[in-house]
Every structure is written in structure tokens, then in C-alpha cells.
Design goal:
One of its GO terms (molecular function) is thiamine pyrophosphate binding. This protein has 12 helices and 10 strands.
């Protein structure tokens, strides 16, 4: 009887021990999985770029990664009203990241990977680092141009041709960074004369079919033949050409054009600050930038160790205007307000 009782006690003890070990082991596993945490990205690039890069980061690090695709102007608006919504901002012109820092929305961080980049792709104080670059171009549909008896534009003035009335696309400066880049480019061409930039876009307005919220929209419209030409990024136009829009052609203005350094910044008030820094380290690496091939993206990588695809527009042959990022940041509000008051309000953007 005693032996039977002892056996029962041993059985109960063994079951209890197994249960405790399983519970501890289970808790340990859960803790290990959750300890990697999350990161939330405000992504100002094309949708497939955002999706591919965030998935790749999550796969390589185990950090749960989510993103919202927003234009640079939209990110600035969200940061104003929703602090802590995002941990890191990836994409959009570097001058917009300067603006975010001016408002106290950036946590300065000098990434260890930044040392591998040319100096023009880094803010030395740690506000931003660049992970791609491209330039403003004219993305035109050859058939539509022929129908209107005009050549592909090679000057900003060519866009004012009456034959192009209602057949030009442009992103709105209030919602898309490329729209503002075009404004600042025109000011730079005119030795910083703000009024001449506004006058140019007033004259261009009758030729605009639609102001878009996103820079890529005009490229798609040109590809479908809905417009004859669009003010666009050369990388977006090349992407459309490679996707099958064979009637498209890229040209650049002979006076010079603006360019962007697509930047990444860690955001102040981030709920996952350490993971935001890991994301920044990763996206500046050659390993990450080599993934541009698989998206595909036609923006040029900033890491000199990264591979550059044969169809990526060659940035070193493009005539560029003098581009002062600090001035571009400081003048954005004035330029955009004038554009909305004198040319077209943001609610017209679609």
C-alpha cells in the first residue's frame, strides 16, 4: 500500500515537474521571440520598394516591420499630429528630413554604416543619411508628342508650348516632394529669384492636365498616353519603361535640373528607437541596396559597394543646378503657400 502511494506521489511529482519545465520553456521561447520587438516605417518611396525592403529587413533581422506609404509632404503632416506613430522615416528628399528636425521630430543618429557613404550623402550631425539618389526629368510619350507635332522637351521653356495645353502632368508641391523640387529648381536657375519661379508655374498652369498627389502618377499617365509629358523622377520613368511602356522617353532640361538624395532618419519619440537605428544601419548597407535589383528600383544606390543596374539612369552625366538643401528646406513653406495661392490649391491634387 505504501509502495503504491509512493508511486502515485512520484507520478504526480513527475507530471508537475514536466508541466513546470514546459511552462518555463514556453515562457522562455515567447520572451525570445518578442524581445526582437517591432519597427514602424513611414516610407516615401514607391509601394513595391516599401514592401520589398521592409519584408527583407524583417526576414533578415526577425524584427516585425510595418510601413505606411506616404509622400514627403504627407509624412510631415502626420508627424505634426501623430507623434510616435512611426519609428523611422525612409525616403523623401533630405531637405524634408531637415524640416522634420527643425520641428523637433528627428532623433539624431550617426549610423555606423554612414562611414561607407560619400560625404554628400550624409548629414554630419546625424539628422539624415541618404540611401538612393535620382534627378528630375521629363518623362514623355513619343506617340503623343508626335500627334501634337512637338519634340521631347529639352528645356523648361518647352513645357510652355501652346501645343501642350492640358497635356502636361506635374505632382503638387504640397503633397509630393518632386513638385517642390521643380519649384526650387526653377528658382535656382534664376539665381534664387522666387518670383520668377512662381511666374513660370503660372504660365505652365494652362498646360497642366492634373496635379497629382504622387510623383509616380504623372509617369503612369504619360505611359498610358493620357498626357504628352510629365515632370517626374528619371528613376520612375525608367521603371515605367522597363515595365513595358515602350513609348516613353527620358529627357533633361538643358538649363539644369534638381536632384534628390532619398534620406532615412530616426524619429524622436519612437516607441522602438533601437530597432529604428537597426533599420537605418541596414538600409545604408550594400547588402540592402543590392536588393534594388529585385524590386526593381531604378534609383541609384548611395553605397559605393552596391551594384548599379545597367538601366539605372546615370546621375554623373545629368546637368544639375546648384542644390542647397538648407535653403530648399527653409523656403519650402513660402514656395508651397505661394503655389497654392497663385497657381493651384492642394485640394486639386488627385
Amino acid at each position: 500500500m505504501m509502495n503504491k502511494s509512493l508511486n502515485i506521489e512520484r507520478l504526480v511529482f513527475s507530471i508537475s515537474a514536466i508541466a513546470i519545465i514546459s511552462l518555463v520553456g514556453g515562457c522562455g521561447f515567447a520572451k525570445s521571440s518578442n524581445s526582437l520587438g517591432n519597427v514602424s516605417v513611414a516610407c516615401s518611396q514607391q509601394e513595391d520598394f516599401c514592401q520589398t525592403m521592409t519584408k527583407a529587413f524583417e526576414k533578415e533581422t526577425g524584427i516585425k516591420t510595418t510601413y505606411v506609404r506616404l509622400g514627403a509632404g504627407e509624412v510631415l503632416a502626420r508627424l505634426k499630429t501623430s507623434k510616435g506613430e512611426f519609428d523611422v522615416w525612409a525616403g523623401g528628399q533630405a531637405e524634408n528630413h531637415l524640416l522634420a528636425n527643425d520641428k523637433g521630430w528627428v532623433e539624431k543618429y550617426v549610423s555606423k554604416a554612414a562611414a561607407n557613404l560619400p560625404k554628400e550623402y550624409n548629414d554630419k550631425s546625424g539628422i539624415w543619411s541618404g540611401f538612393y539618389t535620382d534627378s528630375i526629368a521629363f518623362c514623355s510619350n513619343k506617340k503623343e508628342l508626335k500627334n501634337r507635332s512637338v519634340s521631347a522637351p529639352t528645356s523648361w521653356r518647352d513645357l510652355l508650348d501652346p501645343k501642350l495645353k492640358g497635356r502636361v502632368a506635374m505632382p503638387h508641391p504640397a503633397t509630393a516632394g518632386v513638385g517642390y523640387m521643380a519649384m526650387f529648381t526653377m528658382s535656382s536657375i534664376n539665381n534664387g529669384d522666387f518670383s520668377k519661379s512662381i511666374d513660370f508655374f503660372k504660365k505652365l498652369n494652362p498646360n497642366i492636365m492634373q496635379y497629382s498627389k504622387s510623383a509616380a502618377t504623372g509617369t503612369e499617365q504619360a505611359g498610358r498616353g493620357e498626357v504628352a509629358t510629365s515632370i517626374a523622377l528619371d528613376s520612375d520613368c525608367q521603371k515605367a519603361i522597363s515595365a513595358g511602356y515602350s513609348d516613353l522617353v527620358i529627357t533633361y532640361p538643358k538649363e539644369g535640373t534638381g536632384y534628390e538624395v532619398g534620406a532615412v532618419s530616426v524619429l524622436k519619440g519612437a516607441r522602438n528607437s533601437d530597432n529604428a537605428k537597426k533599420f537605418m544601419d541596414w538600409i545604408l548597407s550594400d547588402k540592402a541596396q543590392n536588393k534594388y535589383f529585385s524590386i526593381p528600383s531604378y534609383a541609384a544606390p548611395t553605397n559605393p559597394e552596391s551594384k548599379v543596374g545597367k538601366d539605372v539612369p546615370k546621375q554623373d552625366v545629368v546637368k544639375k543646378v546648384e542644390w542647397n538643401m538648407r535653403k530648399a528646406a527653409d523656403n519650402r513653406e513660402k514656395f508651397v503657400t505661394a503655389f497654392e495661392n497663385d497657381v493651384a490649391s492642394a485640394d486639386k491634387a488627385k
